[in-house]
Amino acid sequence: MSEFSGRSAQSPAAEDPDLARARQGDGAAFTRLLAPLRRELHAHCYRMLGSTHDADDALQDGMLRAWRGLARFEGRSSLRSWLYTVVTRTCLDALETRDKRAMPVDLSPSSDRAVVSDAPLTDVAWLGPYADAGLAGGPAGPDARYEQREAVELAFVAALQHLPGNQRAALLLFEVLGFTPAEIAATMNTSVASVHSALQRARAIAAQRIPSPTQQQTLRKIDDARVREIVADYSSALERGDADALVALLTEDVTWSMPPLPGWYHGLAAVTDFAVRVPLTGCGSWRHVPISANGQPAIAAYLRRDEAASTYDRWAINVLTLREERIVEITSFIGSEHFEPFGLPVSLT
Questions:
Q1: What mean pLDDT is reported for the chain?
Q2: Please, are residues 329 and 306 in contact by the beta-carbon 8 Å criterion?
Q3: 3-class SS letters over 165-192
Q4: What is residue 9's predicted lDDT score, i.e. its pLDDT?
Q5: Is 285 exposed, middle or buried (0-12, 13-18, 19+ CB in 10 A)?
Q6: Does 61 share its domain with 31?
Q7: Residue 43: phi, psi to the nearest 5?
Q8: Which one of 76, 171, 214, 306 has the fewest CB atoms closer than 10 angstroms to its CB?
Q9: 94-150 tens-digit pLDDT
Q10: CB atoms within 10 A of CB 233
Q11: What is the total count of domains within the chain?
């Protein structure tokens, strides 16, 4: 079945005047049709690929495919479900030539002590952070199991990287978007039996790797003001070099990882040793901007290595994972390339 036929078990939407214009080659009409769906389609590409940059490319490629095939869209399904079919197949094509996205925990055991000489691994495809501004918080469909923001949480996206492409797509289409097995089979050019098999295997792996409760569930139990306070206290502790204040925010089994550095730390003793020897005393001065990333509280960290310098430069996006009111995981995505999707400045004074 062609991806441009638009056949689906979902009920078709009422004919949109812009759809008729777009079929006749009106690019502005196509842009208007796409505008309300672009954010969620981009998030879907990120879930599939684990990288904002790859998601940008896949969405652009997918929308080009949709534009070229729009004249053959029969309208037997909603435009939304048809576009999800197009971008899902685009992502599956991309996965055939790309390595899965990794986290440091996937590559080596944790370190007991700070590894001061840790060097970046440039030959690894690393999972990246996601700028979630504007992403809806509720379910994407009435039959979806996961909320849209739950499905961009770090643990969720990291778990997806351990699934083959077909299982990853099936899980997302079923659990996040609420597609039926028949619709998924049509999207992936396979049988319903194959979809059920892929879902069964994907759920087994996801159950082992996706923690419960999710971060969205945890955050709903914590007052928003308290979450902001935790973020502010974390930032202040780093900026003041206050180890005791930082440790007071952490759980006993806290982890800290810093892709693209391969080393990572597990447990309060190891994390404290790393924090004291590296970010608190061995880097320079810090300034922080509170943000949201992957549906979680996060901080954009700016570093001034030379005290004589007048600016703090982009260093890392720190994503915090909370358990109750303490930090159970810090993931520092090092690299200035992560800042642009968040609309953050190049430097701070």
A1: 93
A2: no
A3: HHHHHHHHHHHHCCCCHHHHHHHHCCCH
A4: 38
A5: middle
A6: yes
A7: -60, -40
A8: 306
A9: 999 988 899 999 999 999 999 988 899 999 999 999 999 999 888 888 888 999 999
A10: 16
A11: 2
Per cent of the chain over pLDDT 70 is 96
| 3-state DSSP assignment of residue 139 | strand
Amino acid at 226: R
Bridge-based pairing of strands 296-304 and 326-334 is: unpaired
CA distance 156 to 334: 20
Distances (CA, A) of 59 to 26, 37, 91, 114, 157: 20, 11, 9, 40, 18
233 shares its domain with 187: no
- Collapsing DSSP to helix, strand or coil, 13 comes out as coil
* The last residue of a domain, from among 149, 174, 209: 209
- CB-hemisphere CA count at 13 Å for 210? 23
Residue in the block written with tokens 């070099």: 241
Residue with tokens 């978007």: 177
Check whether residue 329 and residue 245 sit in a common domain.
yes
